[in-house]
Structure formats: structure tokens, C-alpha cells
Write a structure and sequence with these properties.
By secondary structure, this protein is α+β, with helices and mostly antiparallel strands. It has one domain: Cyclic phosphodiesterase (Cyclic Phosphodiesterase, Chain: A, Alpha-Beta Complex), CATH 3.90.1140. Helix content is 26%, strand content 33%. The strands form 2 sheets. It has a 4-stranded antiparallel beta sheet with strand order 2-1-7-8, covered by helices on one side. It has a 4-stranded antiparallel beta sheet with strand order 5-4-3-6, with helices on one face. A hairpin with a 4-residue loop joins strand 3 and strand 4. Helix 2 crosses helix 3.
Length: 177
Amino acid sequence: MALAINIRADNESAGEIERLWDQVAAFEVEPSMRALGYRPHFTFAIYDGPEIDEKSAWEAMLAAIAGETQLRIAFNRIRWFEGSPLVLWAEPVVDETLARIHGAISAAIDPARCRPHYRPGAWTPHCTLGTAIADGRRNDAIAFARAFDRSFQVLFDVADCVVFPPVRIIAERKLPS
């Protein structure tokens, strides 16, 4: 079981990402994001097994979001992480708040305890669109990402801490508007 610290969109604006989930699902072996039963989100850190306890993770998140309000994040590109399977994600327009929250969490909990891709210097802010791109659809998925030419905004309004799989919210706080 893993533990993740996130900020999620729990409102109508999340529909923009969810529609992209459905489009990207056409390239997947099985739709990955709707299967989570969890809203569009940014993950700041993932810890495996006993690396960090739930209370410490949540306290780090609460400290990181102190004084923060809901984040309206703009997106205008779809990118991908190489690998098998390929992963498609929506790239946020540069947002200092995301970096500040990530930095605060990394300062509160030794990053060496976190999964490598979520450590300072390696973390890429992203909103995942699909994690199971079929190898045979790889080129189609990349073409879809390259052809994306829209711009939209999503309001991320809830900070949370979850365990997975399956995703289970263990603590959450709505951010003030």
C-alpha cells in the first residue's frame, strides 16, 4: 500500500480533464483514470509501505498549504512520460504555488523516503490523463498529444492524503476561495 499527498479538483471545472481522460482511454489497454474512482489531481509525493505514517504526511501537507487558497491552474499542452506503458499528462502553465507546496512537503519529510520521480529536481508537475497506453497505440497517443491545441483552466480546491490501491482518502481539507 502506498500513500500520496495531492491537491485535487472537486468541482465542475474538473470536467475538462475528465473529458481528456475519456479521449486518452481510446489509446489504453483499459481506461486507467476513471478506474481510480478519484478526481483530477496533482500528486506532490508518494511514499511506499512504512516509509511515512499517515499522520506525518497529513501534517506536512497542512503546513504546506497554510495560507493557500484554491488554485486555478491553466493547461495548454499534453505531454508524455516515456516508458512502457507510455503515460500521457496535461502540462500546467508554470505555477509557483505548485512548486512552493512541493518544496514545503520536501522540506518537512526527507525526500529520500519518497518515490524517486517525486523528489526535488525530478518532480514534474503534471495532471495524469492515462497511465496504460497500449504499445500498439503509442504513436497515435503521441500524435494526439502533439495535435492538442486548446487552453483551459481547472480549479484545484481540495488538499488530501490518500492510500492506494484502491484509492482511499484518509484526510482532506477544502481550500478557501
